[in-house]
Prior knowledge:
Radius of gyration of chain A: 13 Å
Helix content of chain A: under 10%
Number of helices of chain B: 0
Order of helices and strands of chain B: EEEEEEEEEEE
Structural class of chain B: mainly beta
Oligomer: heterodimer
Strand content of chain A: over 45%
Distance between the termini of chain A: 41 Å
Largest sheet of chain B: 7 strands, mixed
Largest interface: A-B, 22 and 25 residues
Amino acid sequence: AQSVTQLDSHVSVSEGTPVLLRCNYSSSYSPSLFWYVQHPNKGLQLLLKYTSAATLVKGINGFEAEFKKSETSFHLTKPSAHMSDAAEYFCVVREPGFQKLVFGTGTRLLVSP
Amino acid sequence: DTGVSQDPRHKITKRGQNVTFRCDPISEHNRLYWYRQTLGQGPEFLTYFQNEAQLEKSRLLSDRFSAERPKGSFSTLEIQRTEQGDSAMYLCASRMGASGETQYFGPGTRLLVL
Lengths: 113, 114
């Protein structure tokens, strides 16, 4: 069965410092993996997706993630945090042949001045 | 705005009442999904439509819940005899057919059952 574990419920960084949000997945097959962001009172927005092409995926707003099959990880990074990055981030998995997305429990990113 | 829209954005109801939510997907998207998100959790899948056919339902979707997509465009989600445990954000998403990977989400309907 597919599942996702987000290793940190909260991550705090200072503006201008790097961001690392960790995600491990479990899947019987080669899954599709996504990161979505949820700002307060706004809908979920896709940051980036991995669908069995390049293992280093670049997304919007300077975010990127690397698919590591040997570690079953898909960590999200950004070189320099901005105040506007403060939000809830979800790691998501979808197995081939399945329609549903399976979400992690989320990581709240806090950015201080 | 050509994104996914949901109505209402907020709903407060008393326990035992029925509620209905509407979702309008992106116009060319033939696949539509409903998810539920409770506080502090990620969204959980409820059900999926391809055109007007409901092809998959989660075990989370009890018999008090019913979803329709009568003409393959907008969808409704009805909850009968609401319970306090139904309080959550109800999210709708849509995507293109077989060639589309990304699900696009609406802003959600926040339900509070008193």
